[in-house]
Structure formats: C-alpha cells, structure tokens
Write a structure and sequence with these properties.
Elements: H1 2-14, H2 19-26, H3 30-39, H4 44-54, H5 58-75
Helix pairs in contact: 1-3, 1-5, 2-4
InterPro entries: Cro/C1-type_HTH (IPR001387), Lambda_DNA-bd_dom_sf (IPR010982)
GO molecular function: DNA binding
Protein name: DNA-binding protein
Length: about 80
C-alpha cells in the first residue's frame, strides 16, 4: 500500500496540485488524505474520487503503482 501513496504524491507533483486541493476536489478530509498517503488504507470509493479529481482513470493509477512495486522488488 505504501507504493500507492508514493504514486499519488508523484501525480500531485506532476499536476502541480496540493494535497489540500486534492482533498477538496475528492471530498476526502485533508488529514485523512495525508495519513493515507503515508500509511495506506484507501477505500475504493476514496480512490475513485481521487482519480476523478486528478482527471485520471483509477486503472492508470493502479498500473503505475504495480510498476513501482515491481521495480522496488527487483531492486531487493
């Protein structure tokens, strides 16, 4: 799950969007978003709203997360 947080943080940087803006757009409370970006535990509903707020398909976010996890696994 930590890889998902890394990918979401990368997307925020790429889109020049703050966590506060993402929280407002996705209707996920800012403190909840911050905690889940660092620890994990997003619900499907939250991820769907986050993907919509980022203007992306959820499947694209998941693909990027899986690719990152695979790279990290190879590095070990």
């Amino acid at each position: 799950m930590k890889h998902l947080g890394v990918v979401l943080k990368q997307l925020l940087i790429e889109q020049e969007m703050s966590q506060t803006a993402l929280a407002e757009e996705s209707d996920v409370p800012r403190n909840t978003l911050n905690r889940k970006l660092n620890v994990g535990g997003f619900t499907y509903d939250e991820l769907t709203r986050i993907a919509d707020a980022l203007g992306m398909k959820l499947s694209t976010i998941i693909e990027r997360t899986e690719a990152l996890a695979a790279r990290k696994e190879q590095d070990q």
